[in-house]
Recover the amino acids of this structure.
């Protein structure tokens, strides 16, 4: 079984990096190991889907700090924590910040592999969602100013007649604009248009 | 008039002599004054005589008085000035005595060979009798005695002045010389008939008496003043002595005065109390006798330095009479007493300070050891990490190997490396355990006598802020009379502290139920039972597992706290156990044996 995604290992314990690497490689994962958060950050890591298996307690930069940096980078990498001494408040904070799981050392292979797979799946979804949004942003950018205006009113649920009154034009004009917005954005229904506007956070 | 004045003076100085028998000058003065008064009487008597026989008789008495006056004058000068030549004194007395004898032997009298007639003349407004006759060659003896007396007086005065005596004494001598010379001249003139006047020697002697009287009075006043001054000075000295005595006694340690060679001169009662030697013994001892053998030289050297450099400090073991020693600090300062160099100093017992310092050091060491144990709970997370890390390496490696083995052609080199890594991770885990055990290792408890109350007090004081912030109500109930126990105080306090902390944690989720911590100490005869009771969530089903090492219900706990407590209590020969409360929470008890003599 081959995977296209990379599993990044970040742990200050070289022996554990090696052991985890062996296990994941034996399962056919592409593995890159780093013994510090800084080394990981300075290496290319945002090319595609993937996940980071992070040790929480590391000198200089902790796992939690690294997770924060990845969020700032808007990375599509899914984060899994693995720690020798985690407590409940710490794991809650990690999950709230988007971590897939918070594993405790020693971790059994099946458990680890299952979490890695979930993480990679999440990364893939994130990546494709990001691709969709990029596409919608591109399409939205191609709308004329008037069309963007009409789009906002439409997703707010205003009938064409009211939009026409507000903008001081006849209802027929609004209908034309509306049809063009639907085709330019590539959506078939009002519901779809509302969803896209929501994702693009249009207001 | 002369007689009255003389008698008055005689009375005063006779009284002075009676008061102070040793003042012979006063006695002499007294005699001379009385005799001068008598002489004046005799003179008056002769002046009134008209009969030759009676005149001669009066003159004889008069001469007797003169003899007494002369001898008394010589005596007075002898005692008062103390500078006359004895042979002159004897010459004067001898001549005068001879004159007296001649006077009585050759009647009618010494002055004249024959009296021709008695003449009545007017003298100082009164009619008096004088003699007209041929002066006797023997009367020269009387004249000679007067001249020798004058010479004696001049000599004595001169020598007194040479010696640097006070001017008063010299005044007395000079006036005596003056009056005696004047008398001699008057006598000669009267005797040889150059002038017509009676012999009035008493007037001249009275003159001497007045001057002498004034001086003696001044002397008396002066000596009285001196005596008064002396009394004041004595009082002051007594006050000084009392003050120094008080200073000696008020010193916080031993205060002493010793000679430069080390013999003890003066010391306070503290010295006697500390050394155990009585005052009589101390007075025959030297400073080194109070010093232990090994440090005697140090003390001697310190004394030399103190004398040479104006003071020195030294510390040595004081050897008491009972053979015990105690560390003392001594300061010595040189001082001159009665012209001899001495050392005054203070000795302060510093043994308790030295012991305190040593005790503080021991306490600190033990606290450091305890701190290692106490911080186990805080270290538990990092210890857990240390143990879990090698375990994770072993597990992942082993499972990777299992998966590699499932491949068709497993890489044997890879497998060998995996096994090597497993072995080294295993050794590492064993090391962590070994290290943990060495941290927890406790020697035999160092027993001391402690009060159970103090144990509770100390443990509570360490968690007071937490108790307050968590609003935990603390109630303490103890048996009325608790014995002291033999225990290693700090570990026992740690046990109490640990139990109290556990109780507080168990009550964290109490919600509206008031958090109550009950501490009790009960005397059970052979045992003293300490109990810590809470009304928290209590123990779960695995309540009997709580004393097992590494069993924990706390997310961060290592499961060692109660195990350590158990170890400490068992090392004391006691027992630690827990029980579930009927309503809420749990109670932890431990017993410590009561040593029989403390019952």
């Amino acid at each position: 079984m081959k995977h296209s995604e990379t599993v990044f290992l970040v742990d200050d314990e070289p022996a554990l990096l090696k052991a985890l690497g062996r296990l994941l490689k034996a399962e056919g994962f592409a593995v890159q190991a780093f013994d510090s958060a800084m080394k990981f950050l300075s290496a290319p890591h945002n090319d595609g889907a993937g996940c980071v298996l992070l040790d929480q307690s590391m000198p200089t930069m902790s796992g939690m700090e690294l997770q924060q940096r990845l969020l700032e980078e808007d990375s599509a990498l899914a984060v899994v924590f693995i720690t020798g001494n985690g407590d409940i408040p710490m794991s809650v904070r990690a999950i709230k910040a988007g971590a897939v799981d918070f594993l405790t050392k020693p971790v059994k292979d099946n458990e680890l592999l299952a979490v890695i797979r979930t993480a990679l799946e999440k990364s893939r979804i994130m990546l494709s969602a990001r691709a969709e949004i990029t596409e919608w942003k591109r399409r939205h950018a191609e709308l004329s100013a008037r069309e963007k205006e009409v789009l906002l009113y439409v997703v707010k649920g205003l009938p064409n007649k009211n939009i026409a009154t507000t903008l001081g034009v006849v209802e027929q004009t609004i209908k034309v604009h509306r049809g063009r917005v639907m085709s330019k954005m590539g959506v078939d229904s009002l519901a779809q248009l509302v969803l896209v506007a929501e994702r693009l956070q249009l207001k | 008039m002369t007689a009255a004045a003389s008698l008055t003076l005689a009375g005063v100085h006779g009284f002075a002599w009676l008061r102070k028998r040793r003042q012979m000058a006063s006695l002499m003065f007294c005699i001379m004054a009385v005799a001068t008064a008598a002489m004046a009487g005799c003179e008056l008597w002769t002046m009134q005589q008209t009969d030759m026989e009676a005149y001669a008789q009066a003159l004889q008495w008069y001469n007797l008085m003169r003899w007494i006056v002369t001898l008394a004058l010589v005596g007075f000068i002898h005692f008062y000035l103390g500078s006359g030549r004895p042979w002159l004194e004897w010459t004067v007395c001898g001549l005068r005595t001879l004159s007296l004898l001649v006077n009585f032997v050759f009647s009618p009298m010494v002055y004249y060979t024959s009296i021709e007639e008695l003449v009545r003349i007017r003298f100082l407004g009164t009619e008096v009798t004088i003699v007209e006759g041929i002066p006797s060659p023997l009367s020269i003896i009387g004249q000679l005695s007067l001249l020798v007396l004058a010479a004696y007086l001049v000599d004595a005065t001169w020598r007194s002045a040479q010696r640097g005596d006070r001017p008063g004494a010299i005044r007395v001598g000079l006036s005596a010389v003056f009056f005696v010379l004047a008398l001699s001249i008057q006598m000669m003139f009267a005797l040889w008939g150059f002038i017509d006047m009676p012999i009035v020697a008493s007037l001249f002697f009275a003159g001497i008496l007045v001057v002498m009287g004034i001086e003696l009075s001044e002397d008396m006043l002066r000596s009285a003043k001196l005596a008064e001054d002396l009394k004041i000075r004595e009082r002051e000295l007594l006050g000084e002595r009392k003050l120094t005595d008080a200073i000696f006694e008020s010193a916080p340690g031993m205060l002493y005065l010793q000679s430069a060679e080390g013999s003890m001169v003066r010391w306070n009662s503290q010295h006697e109390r500390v050394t155990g030697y009585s005052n009589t013994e101390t007075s025959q001892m030297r400073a080194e006798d109070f010093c232990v053998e090994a440090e005697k030289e140090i003390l001697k050297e310190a004394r030399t330095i103190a004398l040479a450099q104006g003071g020195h400090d030294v510390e040595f073991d004081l050897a008491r009479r009972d053979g015990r020693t105690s560390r003392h600090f001594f300061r010595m300062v040189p001082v001159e007493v009665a012209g001899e160099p001495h050392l005054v100093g203070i000795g302060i017992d510093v043994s308790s300070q030295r012991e305190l310092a040593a005790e503080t050091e021991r306490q600190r060491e033990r606290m450091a050891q305890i701190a290692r144990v106490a911080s186990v709970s805080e270290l538990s997370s990092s210890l857990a990490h240390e143990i879990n890390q090698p375990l994770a390496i072993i597990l992942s490696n082993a499972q990777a190997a299992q998966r590699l083995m499932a491949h068709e052609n497993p890489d044997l080199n890879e497998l060998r490396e995996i096994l090597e890594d497993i072995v080294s991770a295993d050794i590492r885990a064993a090391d962590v355990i070994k290290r943990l055990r060495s941290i927890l290792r406790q020697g035999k408890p160092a027993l001391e006598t402690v009060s159970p109350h103090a144990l509770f007090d100390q443990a509570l004081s360490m968690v007071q802020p937490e108790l307050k912030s968590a609003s935990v109500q603390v109630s303490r109930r103890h048996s009325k009379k608790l014995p002291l126990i033999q225990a290693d105080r700090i570990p026992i306090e740690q046990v109490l502290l640990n139990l109290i902390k556990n109780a507080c944690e168990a009550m964290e989720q109490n919600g509206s139920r008031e958090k109550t911590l009950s501490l009790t100490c009960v005397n059970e005869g052979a045992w003293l039972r300490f109990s810590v009771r809470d009304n928290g969530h209590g123990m779960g089903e695995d309540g009997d597992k709580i004393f097992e090492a590494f069993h924990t219900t706390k997310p961060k706990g290592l499961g060692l706290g109660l195990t350590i407590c158990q170890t400490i209590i068992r090392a004391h020969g006691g027992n630690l156990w827990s029980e579930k409360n009927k309503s809420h929470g749990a109670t932890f008890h431990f017993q410590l044996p009561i040593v029989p003599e403390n019952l």
Summary: The interface with chain B takes residues 13, 15-16, 18-20, 22-23, 25-27, 57, 82-85, 87-88, 104-109, 112 of chain A (CB under 8 Å). Chain A is about 55% helix and 15% strand.
